[in-house]
Amino acid sequence: MCGIVGFVGNEQAAPILLDGLARLEYRGYDSAGIAVVSQNRELQVKKAKGRLQVLSDIIQGGKSVEGTLGIGHTRWATHGEPNDVNAHPHLSGDGKIAVVHNGIIENYVELRDFLVSQGYEFKSETDTEVVTQLLAYYYAECGDIFETVFKVIRRVEGAYALGIICADCPDRFIAARKDAPLLIGHGEGCNFIASDVTAIIKHTRDISYMDDGEVAVITADGVQVYNSMEQPIEKEHSYIDWDVSAAEKGGYAHFMLKEIMEQPEAIRKTAFSRIRDNRIFFEDLKIDEAYIKNIDKIFIIACGSSYHVGVVGKYNLERMLRKPVEVCLASEFRYSNPLVDEKSLVIVISQSGETLDTMAALREAKSLGAHILSIVNVVGSSIARESDDVLYTWAGPEIAVATTKAYSTQLVLLNMLGLYFGDILGTVSAKEYSEIIDELLRLPAKMEQMLENTDDIKYYASAYFNHSSVFFIGRNLDYAMGLEGSLKLKEISYIHSEAYASGELKHGTISLIEDGTLVIALGTYAPLFDKAMSNVVEVQARGADVLALTTDSHAAEMRKTVENVMTVPQSHTIFQPSLGVVPLQLFAYYVALMRGCDIDKPRNLAKSVTVE
Length: 612
Ligand code: F6R
Fold this sequence. Notes:
alpha/beta; Rossmann fold; eight-stranded antiparallel β-sheet; about 35% helix; about 20% strand; globular; binds fructose -6-phosphate
């Protein structure tokens, strides 16, 4: 999704902006641009469709654009196709104001009509140009850029993170935020804005997160933030302590592979730091025992892979808590007039903490009185800040668009939460509690053992990478895990793929199974292994090529029927999907590699989806 970076200081801005944008590339984009103010108060805007390298070549790595203040942007098209004109920054008709924007201006048609009636002309199809021209309109009236920004944000509806520069004010730029991520980086003799911290961590670790309605005036010497009433406010500072190398490839061909390999360590960091003497401690949780005992229903709300974590969680939490758990797609939940109240617990799951649909669903649930407990990876993100309780996954920065280590850490943390509540509710026996903890402590090592040798998976990828249609089938936790395996495959390899609950196949979908259809049969859920086998036979009889996944202990049985079998170590039932998903991630990775796909930045996708 769009990425913003802004810089003011004593060094040349353009190379710093290009470097920041390169670090935001992972968010997904289709064009890029920068605007820099020169010494003679001239706004230079350079932008280009395609990879950042195209822009960098045009401006000789930044050398041909002179000035120490500027803003940059990577665009992920919403309004208007990806091209040079629609790329940001947008320059006002009078050449005085340049704007970068992340988000969507919902009333842009109305504003555009108004501006056209005032004689303003538009070059692009974007909603952002409306903001630029509206700024020019008010600036022409009042001549004060700060006043102008407040006038504009009072007229625009929708979501925005804005970086604004004005040729008349070469020492400062302005940032504004509502429902789209934006943070300020405090440097020495220089200051920054960025959509996320990866863009500027090289320069500073001293960060403040902007909140909705706030406007910041940023110069080389200081930052002043104002609330929506235009009153100056003091912002809290956060210190970012993760290592820069965590956001680099470290010898791996792709971030995705690196992040798959980092999963055991990410689980250790997330889980082990919360276990002492074989007991779970969630010291930061504010939710009290009385509330937990009074919960009559749990909702899990998320999108994409985070939603898939919720599907696994539904099976595990219902089993551990004996309370109903509903898993909701955030984009559906927010418009469904949900039956949430003060006896509901709403668990929100998000890697980025910025997904707009998830954020909107969170607000809806909060307004209905539910306690919001979020599981988030990005510290200080919007979802984390608006929740009543946050449990962070300590997965570190996840750069590949397709999530892997965030999924795995979310899953472990959700299971731990279930166990923690089960202990309080008395629905998990002491014996099962300690069995689950023991198994959790063994989980990273089992994963490491699997990751040591991936030759089998590479081989199966080479055997099947040419298939055009794939079905992942499984029951119960295998079905839930299949949803994620299927999403991984389709999003990075562009092969059509679906996950089906095996028992449901015969109600329609089995008609799609024909000679050569690839079926990935998941049989790691021990209680239903025999039923999984019946489904394998069923699809084989229709001509399917079957690749199976099962546990070491069921491998021999599976091999009696299926030639190609991937195996994972046996674990406690609730953790079996944490192991099972790893070969599915690797299978997707190697298939995409063999198909020559852009693995870390799949087409049409963005890492952080900050539009509806
Ligand atoms: C798929 C993927 C997405 C995200 C989804 C939610 O690999 O990464 O499906 O899971 O966009 O994002 P977060 O978790 O940031 O809210």
